[in-house]
Amino acid sequence: MSRATVFHVDKSLEKPERVMLVGVMLTADYAGANETRERAFQTALAEAAELVSAAGGDLVCTETAKRDKAQTAYFVGTGKVEELAAAVKAYDIKLAVFNHELSPTQERNLEKALQCRVLDRVGLILAIFAKRAQSQEGKLQVELAQLSHLSGRLVRGYGHMQSQKGGIGLKGPGETQLETDRRLINQKITALKKQLQQVKKQRATRRKSREGGRLKTFAIVGYTNAGKSSLFNRLTKADVLAQDQLFATLDTTARRLFLSHEASVILTDTVGFVRDLPHKLVSAFSATLEETALADVLLHVVDASNPDCERQMDDVNVVLEEIGAHDIPQLVVYNKIDLLPAGKREAGILRDNAGRAVAVNISVAKGLGLDALREAMIERALQ
Questions:
Q1: Which single residue of 80, 84, 251, 263 could bond 259 by disulfide (Cβ 3.0 to 4.6 Å)?
Q2: Where are the extended beta strands (E) located within 162-314?
């Protein structure tokens, strides 16, 4: 299956792949005044550059364009395609990454016109997940998402391989290479879903045993790179991977956390969310995300130093609604307050008019506000 190379991640010591990032400002995607739209677009582009870095690529150049709507054949206009092709040749680009979801037809047309591999936003995030998956469950979930994505890329993808192939023991004219590939992929997808269903049962058994102790579950959620794993490690003395990069953690980890003599909880760390998180990933990671949907309280970790933090919170809440976790009570944890201007670094609990703890200002890196966070968690645990 030639298209499977889309998700190949080179783990050798060779030089990183030379990447060109393409961002297109579509009118429908960005509302508000011109200045606001431009800022939102640049923020999305910066995040895409981080994704390229997280995937192990060498970002050589960035190309941008503005359009009212996507062009059917190439997503961008034919004039822009010529500019991109010239840039590919000039900078010796090996991979063009579009910060959008491309149709299979657009992806094929662009590869032919640019004479290099083309990856869309979904494929890029899948490549990162393939690189980061550590546990058997994580690898199964990533493979399922990849194959689901790939199956759509097979549609009319083998125009040069449509000759029928027959053989001994085969009735009739046989089947085309495309049909064979699609059948094999569907068989693999079915097998993976069965394996993940078994994982789901095992997870439910472990959860039931935890619930037997009548401990409330707090699930840490938030935008990727907000500091979720660092907070989890600080509270539980665990050693979950925590790095300054997107999607450092893919596997859910659960630990019992002693808060006080009256309150102990189960704390779980989960995969980070991101803007326009591919639906294929949300579906494939259902077993992992189920831990979030069945939690008693969500600790919504926010990078308070990020000027786009409100939009990131909205993006997280969109995914939470998609997995059925939008009605679970949240305690917002504003992290990285040490990076805020001097007058806005005060750690502590933020309460509503009824006196209930609704948010906590902390800095995991500096150890600020952690006692206040524990106090707020105790309140929620005893409610």
A1: 263
A2: 216-222, 253-258, 264-269, 297-303
296 touches 217 (CB < 8 A) = yes
Contacts of 191-198 with CB under 8 Å at 24 or more apart are 192/140, 192/143, 192/144, 192/147, 193/144, 195/140, 196/137, 196/140, 196/141, 196/144, 196/284, 196/286, 196/287
pLDDT by residue (tens digit) across 68-96?
A: 999 999 999 999 999 999 999 999 999 99
> Which H or E run includes 64?
strand 58-67
Q: How many CB atoms lie within 10 A of CB 186?
A: 12
The pTM score is 0.73
Asked whether residue 162 carries a pLDDT value surpassing 50, the answer given is: no
DSSP 99: S
Tokens 């907070």 sit on residue = 231
Quickly count: other Cβ atoms within 10 Å of residue 101's Cβ. Answer: 16
- Identify the CA nearest to 228 among candidates 237, 241, 216, 217: 241
141 touches 284 (CB < 8 A):
yes
How many angstroms separate the CA atoms of 79 and 315, rounded?
33
Paired sense of beta strands 117-119 and 216-222, if any:
unpaired
- 25-38 as b/e, with b when 16 or more CB fall inside 10 Å? beeeebeeeeeebe
Tokens of 48: 């895409």
